[in-house]
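Hello again,

I reread your note about wanting to compare the complex against the isolated chains. To keep things tidy I'm splitting this into two emails, and this first one only covers the full assembly. Below are the input lines as submitted, including protein chains and any nucleic acid or small-molecule components. They are followed by the predicted structure of everything together. The single-chain runs will come separately.
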Amino acid sequence: MSRSKKQLHLNLFLRNTGHHEASWRHPDSQPGGVTDIAYYVRLAQTAERGKLDSLFLADSYGLPPTMQFLVQQALEPFTLLSALAMATSRIGLIGTASTTYNEPFHIARKFVSLDHISGGRAGWNIVTSTGNATAFNFSDAPLPEHSERYRRAGEFMEVVRALWDSWEEDAVVGDKENGLYVNPAKLHEIRHAGEYFNVRGPLNLPRAPQGHPVLVQAGASDTGREFASSLAEAVFTAQNTLEDGQRFYADVKARMLKHGRSPDRMKILPGFCPVIGDTHAEAVEKERELNELTQPEYGVYRLSNLLKMDLRDYPLDGPLPYAELARNAEINSQKARHQLYLELAQRENLTIRQLILRTATSRGHYSITGTPVEIADEMERWIDAGAADGFNLMPPCFPTGLDEFVDKVVPELQNRGLFRTEYEGATLREHYGLAKPERTSGQRAVAAK
Amino acid sequence: MSRSKKQLHLNLFLRNTGHHEASWRHPDSQPGGVTDIAYYVRLAQTAERGKLDSLFLADSYGLPPTMQFLVQQALEPFTLLSALAMATSRIGLIGTASTTYNEPFHIARKFVSLDHISGGRAGWNIVTSTGNATAFNFSDAPLPEHSERYRRAGEFMEVVRALWDSWEEDAVVGDKENGLYVNPAKLHEIRHAGEYFNVRGPLNLPRAPQGHPVLVQAGASDTGREFASSLAEAVFTAQNTLEDGQRFYADVKARMLKHGRSPDRMKILPGFCPVIGDTHAEAVEKERELNELTQPEYGVYRLSNLLKMDLRDYPLDGPLPYAELARNAEINSQKARHQLYLELAQRENLTIRQLILRTATSRGHYSITGTPVEIADEMERWIDAGAADGFNLMPPCFPTGLDEFVDKVVPELQNRGLFRTEYEGATLREHYGLAKPERTSGQRAVAAK
Ligand SMILES: Cc1cc2nc3c(=O)[nH]c(=O)nc-3n(C[C@H](O)[C@H](O)[C@H](O)COP(=O)(O)O)c2cc1C
Ligand SMILES: Cc1cc2nc3c(=O)[nH]c(=O)nc-3n(C[C@H](O)[C@H](O)[C@H](O)COP(=O)(O)O)c2cc1C
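Full-complex prediction:
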């Protein structure tokens, strides 16, 4: 067992009953768990037992109109992750928050608070929101355009990072004798006045243990990749093949150089959905079992929604209407995912029904069905080929899919010297090998009284 | 020991190092604790050992310009209370959120999430914010006028309560066999379109265990009292004398009748700040010790701020400039507290320095210095006189002031049959004896797909 091999990083993508769309119907699943903290505690503790770097909660602020088919809601990330911080001691806790439907002051503060509570384990998946189900819970205006959302995101991050730097590391003096609690020279207003935000600062919490919580992003478009390259320290991405993964990896790391950032300051983590069996046949049988529980009515909805075209009138066992779909690509807000589905269908010559099943497990993320050895092989292949720094683990079904991964695949990775056998650091930054950010200077000190 | 006596309710008002403004300088205090979750866990567990109904976190979104004199910042309420939910099992968890600088969807959801995580122990102290230190972290506009803030608060509550009712109690079916997760007929859009908010709904979380988290408010003005009477289930208030307490109690309960609410659907909890000694002399000595640690520079700032008049040029050992101050009352946004200070100074004929010390312990709340028996006597007197349903406990110094209360005053109250010796219920509603709210009807079901 050699430790000279490149170490991979593992993030657990928590998602209600699992990533397979029919997971909630599986006999092992616990749909009642999604509002039960004990359910999440069990998953988080299993992930920590497996020495995973972090766990991650996706989030949105609206419900899809398909609630009857699917467990879609979940506990709110800040509250849930703070609770999980108390039930774990090492694993990183990554929450999603949108820059489109929040105020920078609130978000900056909640992540610092979570970072204090967890002892430096907070991370933020920065998203700009998708869909009007979210938009209409905040106003009668539809979701802003893609470019507008990213412009706001850029300014949002400027404000948040300035707020995170508004307390110097040693601002708190706590000198009881002389009655000096804070050194006012080390507390700074930010006086941000921009296109979207006016924020005076300082933040009302001392600097986070990690300096800044770890910044995570999942941009797929050109704008999104630029944004991620400029600041993200971990990137989630959906890649269907190793070759696509290599192209994405090379592209984003090259963009980082353009932004003056060293490529090792970001970990790229493609989604990875393993259906695990002790034999290959057992794994295939597991996948079949899950696929049998899917509801075509929901699959057609999901596909129609993603491809922005009503597919209900097309025969399930016929091909996709490629010509019409190509025209739609222009107006599609999720262009990258759209493209990925079309390429998959064409490459494998799939009918609508087959495409639904092919993406039921992982919604366009890479999915593999096999033994622990086959799965570890594939992970190693992606790392070695420069397609990934680690993976965003998406078990098809909780809790069993996670238990199996931790009990069977993790030891295999550890035996190969690819993955830690013990946590070495205490913070999320340390797990990912990310440097603590320097404070930017040039802010004005808060006037003494 | 008779259980026929009216039971009193106790809420612990958590506040960094304690309620005395110089508490952080006391040898017993732990100013470093305010960003350390272990510090809060210890306090919460002590309060739970004392069988207190709830604990409460005040909050604002800005720092005062007096940071050097005082520990003022604290962990953020949603994250902190969710963490405390995991370290306790019975005590209620009341967080503050402002209706002026938040979106109803986010607040509705976070409280439901906290209610699920804590098993029905969430409460919300509804505030409208004060001061431009908060305002300027959200825009370049100053704090909206008092009446404007309450108008927005009214509509905010309409939206939040509709969102809380947007899932019927039995909306989640979880029928794996037939593939029906949610019954779409029991999930409702709210389609709110008002002056301040447009919110479609439904919420993206199933109904809270308590139906609605407990609503707490602390309005003191006429508008504030109207607001509280219309919906609050617990009211915090600052009352300097038992007689003032009686007047406030009678007034608010009478207003409830006007709103068609039974007076027992609200618990009135005046602030109560006990400085406890085994002998009366010891208690007095404790108070003197704390007062000696105050910093006049800060005291004058606090008074100037509250009375909206710069007092730095007036002699500390002279009287308040009553004539000038009377003129200021008109423009004062915290009129009630302002009034309370002036009355106190006049009634007791205090100099500026004496008023500073007199309010250093509890900032205008009722404060008592004495033995456990004297303190229990006073509590009983307030309850019997119809001035309170219980108290908002404000220990001058943490953790010692809380330890002493739990170890010495609580048993005294229990011996008198005034306070529970064990939790009887599981939820915050049950501790306060508040009924679970009914769902309002008349919302439209979410279209099936
Ligand atoms: C693994 C993964 C997780 C994501 N989680 C969220 C999420 O929780 N909320 C959200 O609004 N978007 C989420 N997204 C969407 C991305 O933030 C991004 O918007 C999407 O990949 C499209 O890229 P673009 O923004 O560059 O167009 C996620 C994407 C990926 C790949
Ligand atoms: C015990 C107590 C706690 C309070 N906590 C807060 C708080 O956390 N945040 C806040 O903005 N206001 C807080 N307030 C202020 C009240 O919400 C209210 O605005 C104040 O009593 C003045 O009354 P009015 O709003 O009717 O003018 C508190 C008041 C009291 C008595």
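For quick reference: Chain A has a mean pLDDT of 93.

B.
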